[in-house]
Design a protein that fits this description.
The complex is a heterodimer of chains A (744) and B (384). Helix content of chain A is 38%, strand content 17%. Chain B has 2 domains: 192 residues, Four Helix Bundle (Hemerythrin (Met), subunit A); 177 residues, 3-Layer(aba) Sandwich (Rossmann fold). In chain B, strands 1, 2, 3, 4, 5, 6, 7, 8 and 9 form a 9-stranded mixed β-sheet that branches. In chain B, strand 2, helix 10 and strand 3 form a beta-alpha-beta unit. The chains are: A alpha/beta (744), B alpha/beta (384). Chain A: This is Mannose-1-phosphate guanyltransferase.
Chain lengths: 744, 384
């Protein structure tokens, strides 16, 4: 910091001498910035129903002011603003502002342009639109409209440029602020924990994942490619400042991926994952000083407000008066704007009072932000709350850790519990005590924007407003992974709380236990152990192997299910689609050959055993085996190619072993019948040229085939087959030798 | 930052370069926001204000002295409000307004001084003529004591201007006079700018009078003025400097490394101290040198926070405290109302924002300036 100041001083000193003819400065391309003023989320409901979220007041200043000011302080020249909902309001606000209006000659930007995208439903649509417009000429700064930051960008831009010159594929730099190991309120406030995998030697971002407390499994699966880097760090402590330095290539990447919606969860994750396809390098600037955060949800709103009052965000503090017409002065823990009045017997501490706000006698206010023209009555208690402009709190009311929006009226002696969100114009009548559960979110509008019917039981007889209910989201309900609740629920309230949410208490450090009978085969397990060890070597604590095992488990279940269904299907004789599905599953889960072998054998064994049941006709084992294997066209080929997977003796033996184990695991099938069925299946497979006799004989000799009683009993039933095979073999070899003799 | 890099962030240097190409209002706005965002700091501020007022005089349209005064006063008020803790802004504005009045009223009665007070009353601090600062102000023996600051600036020949004010109709001759007045005032402001830029050098000129061979000099958080003072002294004298710094430091980092190197190069020893060890070293110290941010009417000084600890320690051991301050930092305000309003800096100077527990539990007050009462100051060194 001091170095920077010194250099600034130096610049100033130089410019004292210089001459008037100062056009020698080489004209660089103007710095461009794109502001994403809407994020298409409903984290700020019910407030964002009526007002765009970038105009919601943060310490009595609309949030977008901080972003614009930040861009101005970094010398941005051209600004493009993408607005979603309520775009007219944002445009009116900017055009009416004498500081930012493009017509005003006071505007520090050379141009401010609004871009409307009529059918945009995500940030991805904005950026794909931006790509089409070709407005961007070089590196640009992509910020969200809710960024509060004081991080100087000059150095970051210079380093970005250096990286880009060194490697044309370095297309993006993400600005992150480390928040240390100790529990940090900014880190706690976000609900979703971003996990950045970064190469600390060059700042390259290798993988990005998101975690949240509601997800079913608490594991992050690392890509194999991550391990190719000599060193990597997994960081969960980073605060995403919402500031990206991008080259136009980034927009092209967005255009290529038409389904990306969110810049982090979709875009960053996807681009890093497909690194081998696109070859693009994304870097992370992890800062140890400075302030940067996004007021992306109500908890962050709370957190940033507190940070501002504690001056972490300097110069973005109330007494900097960055907004035109603001006149805050700081005195003994209070920021008072002109005309704010506090009666003598009231105690107000660590709070902000806007212009002509009035606090009557005997009130106690602490750690709160009170807007302009607010009227606070006698003996009111307000703690940790945000009261927006023109709200009225009548005598004796209590407001705890809540947000009261513009023009709301809180009646006499009413009680507003922690976490309440009281929207615009709501009226709570005198003596009403709001329930603390469910957390009151009271609005005059419903989630569709229709006027809501006043709920007198809630807001009292003279009240106005009803409980705001989240819209039923049809799109989310079809997400099938049960238990994976939408993390948005964590972010929609002012106070971060997991209470009342269904969270699995599973510890991260234990291996997942499987209640299914099939255990992972040993080699599979070993593989995971190796992986886990490797991770430990690179000082990485979370146990990844269990997550992978779980994924494979799921693969097994899905695959067997799919195959058995295909075998059962009466109307369809074609097995190709099932095969396609199976291969898709295999690719998606990165299943190994042994996993596939296991799945195939279980599927066919299950089907054959089914056919022996009386309700399916009670077929003889031989017929059942034949039916299971041959009723569908392509099934035999499938087993040969996928199940066995090669023409080697040990592979054949493995498949036979897998069949044996699969039959042993089928419930309701005694070992005698299972053994008979196995013999039948093996014979069929032999006849169909799927298994060679060497394979079956190798299986016969394999110690694993007689590990326990069940297995050896099953195996015993195949003795006849094996003996017959052995004889056949001898005959074969006899024939061979005959032939040999003949040829001699 | 390497100079080769392109820097986008606005700086005072860029603003001053663009003054001619930008409309006046935009320039003022830029400076206001540079001040609000703390992108101009310290001794640059006075220079920046003088430049801006020069632009106001040169570019804005005015037909009478009163109009000009009103314009300068309005601009000055805006600038002063954008950095309320910087007393220097008010000082420079008052200097310029005084200059305009002086130029305009060479022929007029002396009582228009009284008017100026009322005009200036909008400024945040009640302006009165600067009183003699300090108990024992040191001035260069070569300069006559009787010369006031304003007279210093009136070296050019006097302009005869007719009576001013809205009631006086403007004649051709008057407008010619206004034209002459404009150039006179611009010359005057340029002289103020010269004075501001030369103040440090002039103060440093007294260094060898104050610092004697073999002295042990304590410099607490040396400002650029103090640095220049020490370096100048080092050219002629052999002495030892204790450099005390109160900031949170990275281990292994030498505070004020550049200054150390410069002094060592001239053969002067430097010893770095942590501020909590000050008292222990005080018996060895011969004098304490402190740079002022502003000097109040009663002789009290606004300094870097922590300087008063050094001064108090010096008082305890009866060591002289020398305050270095350019005359433009002398302000007519009384400190009593303003002491509590000293600027508070970024909390991260003391606590890392990454330290979540501390961020939650602590309320960090980083006061960047503090008030040093006059009784702790023994010598003021100015540029007069």
């Amino acid at each position: 910091m001091s170095g920077k100041q010194a250099s600034k001083g130096g610049a100033a000193n130089k410019s004292k001498k210089p001459a008037k003819g100062g056009a020698e400065e080489k004209r660089e391309d103007a710095l461009q910035a794109v502001i994403l003023a809407d994020s298409f989320q409903d984290r700020f409901q019910p407030f964002a129903l009526e007002k765009p979220r970038c105009l919601l007041p943060l310490v009595n200043v609309p949030v977008i002011e901080y972003t614009l000011e930040y861009l101005a302080s970094n010398g941005v020249q051209e600004v493009f603003i993408y607005c979603g909902a309520h775009s007219e309001d944002v445009e009116t606000y900017i055009n009416d502002s004498d500081r930012w209006s493009p017509e005003s000659n006071l505007c520090p930007f050379s141009s401010v342009d609004f871009i409307r995208v009529s059918d945009a439903s995500s940030i991805g649509d904005f950026l794909r639109d931006l790509d089409k417009r070709s407005l961007i000429s070089g590196d640009f700064i992509l910020v969200h409209g809710d960024v509060v930051a004081n991080i100087p960008l000059d150095g970051i831009l210079a380093r970005h440029r250096a990286r880009r010159e060194a490697n044309r594929d370095a297309c993006m730099t993400i600005v992150l602020r480390s928040s240390g190991n100790s529990p940090h309120r900014a880190a706690k406030a976000r609900g979703i924990t971003p996990v950045f995998v970064v190469d600390p030697t060059n700042g390259r971002c290798l993988q990005y994942e998101e975690m949240h407390p509601l997800q079913k499994d608490k594991y992050v699966k690392l890509d194999d490619s991550v391990f190719e880097h000599g060193e990597f760090e997994m960081r969960t402590d980073l605060i995403d400042c919402g500031i990206d330095i991008c080259t136009p290539d980034v927009l092209a990447l967005w255009s290529e991926s038409f389904d990306y919606e969110l810049p982090r969860k979709n875009f960053l994750h996807g681009v890093l994952k497909d690194w081998e396809l696109n070859g693009k390098i994304i870097s992370a600037e992890i800062l140890e000083e400075g302030y940067g955060a996004r007021a992306s949800n109500l908890q962050m709103y709370d957190c940033i407000s507190k940070d501002m009052l504690h001056r972490w965000t300097l110069p973005y503090v109330p007494d900097s008066n960055l907004l035109h017409g603001q006149t805050y002065k700081y005195k003994r823990g209070l920021w008072l704007e002109d005309g704010a009045h506090i009666a003598k017997t009231s105690t107000v501490t660590e709070s902000v009072l806007g212009k002509t706000a009035y606090v009557d006698t005997g009130s106690k206010i602490s750690n709160s932000v009170i807007g302009r023209r607010c009227q606070i009555g006698k003996n009111v208690r307000i703690e940790n709350s945000y009261i927006w402009d023109d709200a009225v709190i009548e005598d004796g009311a209590t407001v705890l850790h809540s947000i009261i929006a513009n023009d709301a009226v809180i009646g006499k002696h009413s009680y507003i519990p922690e976490g309440s969100l009281i929207s615009y114009g709501v009226r709570i009548s005198a003596g009403t005590e709001l329930p603390s559960k469910p957390v009151p979110r009271i609005s005059l509008l419903t989630s569709e924007g229709e006027p809501a019917k006043t709920d007198c039981r809630l807001v009292g007889n003279d009240g106005k407003g009803a409980l705001y209910e989240e819209p039923e989201d049809d799109e989310d309900s079809d997400s099938e992974d049960e238990g994976d609740a939408d993390p948005a629920v964590l972010q929609s309230s002012l106070i971060y709380s997991l209470a009342g949410l269904n969270i699995s208490r599973e510890s991260i450090s234990t291996l997942a236990t499987h209640d299914s009978d099939e255990e992972l085969s040993d080699d599979e397990y070993e593989q995971f152990q190796v992986k886990a060890n490797r991770e430990r070597l690179s000082s990485f604590a979370s146990d990844d192997s269990a997550a992978a095992a779980r994924a494979l488990d799921q693969f097994h279940g899905d695959a067997v299910h799919g195959l058995v269904d295909a075998l059962r299907a009466d109307d369809n004789d074609d097995f190709d689609s099932a095969k396609l599905e199976f291969m898709g599953l295999r690719l998606a889960n990165n299943a190994s050959d042994s996993m596939m072998r296991k799945a195939v054998s279980v599927a066919f064994a299950t089907r054959a055993a089914e056919l022996m049941n009386p309700e399916n006709g009670g077929l003889e084992p031989t017929k059942a085996a034949g039916r299971a294997l041959t009723s569908k066209k392509g099934a035999v080929k499938f087993i040969t190619e996928v199940g066995v997977g090669g023409n080697k003796v040990d592979l054949h033996a493995e498949f036979a072993l897998a069949l044996q184990k699969a039959l042993a695991a089928i419930k309701g099938l005694d070992s005698v019948r299972a053994g008979t069925l196995l013999a039948a299946l093996l014979q069929q497979l032999y006849n169909l040229d799927v298994l060679e006799e060497e394979g079956i004989l190798a299986w016969w000799m394999d110690a694993r085939a007689a590990e326990n009683d069940t297995l050896s009993k099953i195996k015993e039933r195949s003795r006849v087959l094996v003996e017959w095979l052995e004889n056949a073999d001898e005959e074969d070899s006899d024939e061979d030798s005959d032939e040999d003799e003949d040829s001699d | 930052m390497a100079p080769s890099q392109t820097s986008y962030a606005p700086t005072l240097g860029k603003l001053l370069k663009s003054l001619n190409s930008q409309p006046l209002e935009a320039s003022i706005e830029s400076l206001v926001y540079l001040l609000k965002r703390r992108q101009v700091k310290g001794d640059d501020i006075a220079n920046a204000i003088a430049h801006m007022l020069l632009q106001v005089v040169a570019k804005s349209k005015w037909q009478s002295v009163d109009q000009l005064l009103a314009k300068v006063s309005n601009t000055g008020l805006r600038l002063a409000q954008s950095a309320p803790s910087e007393q220097v802004i008010g000082n420079v504005v008052r200097r310029v307004m005084g200059l305009i009045r002086d130029e305009a009223s060479e022929d007029r009665n002396a009582d228009d001084m009284a008017d100026s007070v009322s005009d200036l009353s909008q400024l945040p601090t009640t302006p009165t003529m600067p009183s003699r600062p300090g108990p024992t102000p040191l001035r260069a023996a070569t300069l006559p004591m009787s010369r006031s600051m304003f007279n210093l600036l009136c070296v050019s020949e006097t302009v005869s201007s007719p009576g001013t004010g809205a009631s006086t109709p403007m004649s051709q001759g008057a407008s010619a006079n206004m034209h002459a007045l404009r150039s006179e005032v611009i010359d005057g402001i340029e002289e103020i700018m010269d004075e501001i830029s030369q103040a440090d050098d002039q103060i440093a000129g007294f260094a060898d009078i104050q610092i004697h061979p073999g002295d042990y000099v304590l410099a607490y958080l040396p400002s650029p003025t103090v640095e220049r003072f020490l370096v100048k002294a080092a050219a002629k004298r052999r002495f030892t400097v204790f450099l005390a710094s109160g900031d949170r430091q990275e281990p292994g980092e030498v505070p004020h490394a550049a200054l150390c190197k410069k002094l060592n190069g001239l053969g002067v020893n430097t010893i770095s101290l942590a501020s909590n060890g000050l008292m222990a070293y005080m018996p060895r110290v011969n004098k304490v040198v402190i740079g002022a941010k502003a000097v109040y009417a009663n002789g009290g000084v606004s300094t870097e926070s922590g300087c008063s600890i050094a001064a108090r320690a010096a008082r305890e051991y009866s060591k002289p405290v020398i305050v270095l301050s350019g005359v433009y930092k002398f302000c007519p305000a009384d400190p009593s109302d303003d002491v509590t309003e000293f600027e508070r800096g970024d909390s991260s100077a003391f606590v890392d924002y990454a330290d979540g527990e501390a961020v939650d539990a602590l309320e960090v007050e980083n006061i960047v300036a503090e008030y040093l009462p006059p009784q702790y100051v023994d010598v003021y060194v100015t540029n007069l």
